Amino acid sequence: MKILAFSDLHLDTGARDAILEAASGADLVIGAGDFANQHRGLEEFVAPFEAIAGKALFTCGNNETLDALRAATSVPVLHGETTDFGGLTIAGIGCGIPPLPPLPWSSFDMTEAEAEALLAPIDAVDILVSHSPPKGAGDRLSGKGHIGSDALREAAERMTPRFLFCGHIHDDWGARDTIGACTVANLGPGLNWFETE
């Protein structure tokens, strides 16, 4: 299966349109959150994804709420749930985890404890889609080091996915790390291709 994955479009229509054009060559398209910018512009921006809704999966970021993204698209939005697609079990969790420092706008965040509780019922999966990265992988912030989520790292160790797709930390877009046999990919808004057997 050919997978096209991305994150953090933040209303970038050029990046969105490039993804939609490339999507014809994908079996599955995964968006790991932050379609909007500070909760603005979401509905109009995601509307073109309706053309590929049958082969797409999303999770929300911290720049749009779960309810807002679900209201704006018919693409399934995973948050503490799993779905089966083409023989793969895929789980998703959105939000900023852990919460960002105070901002002049309201970031859609979860605490480590909330994320741990949301993910606890989920067993082994093939792919984990998270807006935020796990601690120690794809989570390097300039001047701050590793700032990812302990709960997501523990989930990756327990669920043993083949891939963990994330974004959120712009400084580490394009990073590829591993947690055991899992490839962790901080995606960013480009064209990121992956294949499963």
From TrEMBL:
Name this protein carries in UniProt? Serine/threonine protein phosphatase
Family of the protein in this entry: Belongs to the metallophosphoesterase superfamily. YfcE family.
| Record-annotated Calcineurin-like phosphoesterase domain positions | 1-188
Among PANTHER family, the record links this protein to: CALCINEURIN-LIKE PHOSPHOESTERASE DOMAIN-CONTAINING PROTEIN, METALLOPHOSPHOESTERASE
Family annotation (InterPro entries): Calcineurin-like_PHP_lpxH, Metallo-depent_PP-like, UPF0046_metallophosphoest
Q: Record's superkingdom?
A: Bacteria
